[in-house]
Amino acid sequence: MKMIRRLYDWVLHWAATPYGTLALFCLAFAESSFFPIPPDVLLLALCIATPRHSFRYALLTAVGSVLGGMLGYGIGHSLWGAVSDYFFRYVPGFTEAIFATVQELFVSYDFWAIFTAGFTPIPYKVFTIGAGVFEINFPVFVLASVIGRSLRFFLVAALIYRFGPAVRNFIEKYFNLLTLIFMVLLIGGFLVIKYVF
């Protein structure tokens, strides 16, 4: 936990440097396949510092994250046999039990599993690498990632843009709950459309 906290502080310090935007892209890219700290931390700090650029930061984060997800897919598809021990031992969020659950989800819900991981606090990297390991259709993977990641980061940017720094503590405290509520409403809406209309 101390190491994670040090990484968190290290990520956050980039907001006060001229390299914050580049660091945001690199963080979003790395978090999608191996880095433990989500890019929301730096995205929040940059949006609060310059609210008028919030949507630009969200776009940059989404692009970096999706490209990093493609790297994760490649790791899973081509290198998993060589690197799986490293991920299970050293990368937070990776366990054999979680990976088995991911496989079960992919069997029935490939698009929705990736979309949900991209939008919610579920570790996205487990799904990007899992998508490669279990040979999920690549265009489906990319589409679900683009939609899920963009919704997540643009939601943060929109809240900061609209409400300013006052909303930061609220987002940090309730982000996981808010995304889960949104997912329940979204999936519930699709079920209503499917079974009622």
TrEMBL record:
It comes from the Bacteria. The keyword Transmembrane helix applies. The keyword Membrane applies. The chain crosses the membrane at residues 12-35, 55-76, 97-120, 140-163, 175-196. GO terms for cellular component: plasma membrane. Keywords: Membrane, Transmembrane, Transmembrane helix. Residues 37-161 form the VTT domain. This is DedA family protein. It comes from Trichloromonas acetexigens.
